Amino acid sequence: MNLRNLIGGLPGYWCLFEAFELSLLRSKSPTWFGLYSTPKAFAILLLLTGSFLTLRFISPIISSKLDDIPVKERLKNLSPLKIFFFLHIIFRISLINIPCSVGEDMTQQMLSSKQWLDGISIAPNVLSSPDSTNISANKSDWIVRPPGGAWIPLPWLLLGFSLGNSIHISLFVLSIAFGTGWLKLASTLSLPIPWLQVLAFLLAVAACLGSLSLSTASVFTTATFPWLLTLSLYFSDQWNLPKQKLKIHLLSLLFFLAIGVHAFFKLSSLLTVSSIALIPFLIQVVKCKKIKLSTCYMAIAGLILFLLPYFLLSSLNEQLTGISSDELYSQQD
To answer: CB–CB of 145/328 below 8 Å?
Structure first.
């Protein structure tokens, strides 16, 4: 596949990606396969059909039109990372007057962080509101959601920024981590420079649009996912070396703990990042005819560290509200 074919196929790949993203989320009232409601199943089917028709009939037409566009030689050597930063900043400045939208699930957590900074509530993710039995007094309630969402604007709130600006800055930083992470992963996989340049442009657009919305705390997972994937490939290579250093084993354990920490931001993110945790073990099994005892020990320790944050969060929710993480997760779409 050459660069022009890649560009021509982008609409089809976008439809395919959206269908894949929808398929990862279980509906609250599933009808089909115990996973999807009728509208969601129809949307997935429509996106898959659109992807097939686009890649089969429309993409070749776009690719043929691109053959007539000349490309200057000096443009071929532009750094993909510089392209991403330049375009992302330009795009974001052009949308500077567009307000950031905050999802309904996140508004209470944002308010709790502001209340904690103002001394109204005792901690982020603890919301102070009028007591229904005595409206002259306030009550403090633990928000039954992973507390990581309330931490997103905290660094900038502590520096004196307003809540709105803090959310904007946090989203901008996370969007940069998102874009640079995918470029790093693509570079690790030795993609050609022209492909990386096109990817930098697409990531700049996606990152800019993503920085305008804080719908859920999964924005944290979106930013860290490519970096975790790159690290999983790195540890896979290190585990296959004849002599393994103690430092690599310790960093590997820290890696599994870092993956598990995503439970504090979005419980459903554990389903996504769990596949990353499996990659080093799968590569080890494929490359080695015999499973090493050290790999078994690492799997046991990694599993414990991966699940530890989840159980800590579940215990915290049960102590403060009586609702476990299992019950909370079953209520989410």
So the answer is: yes
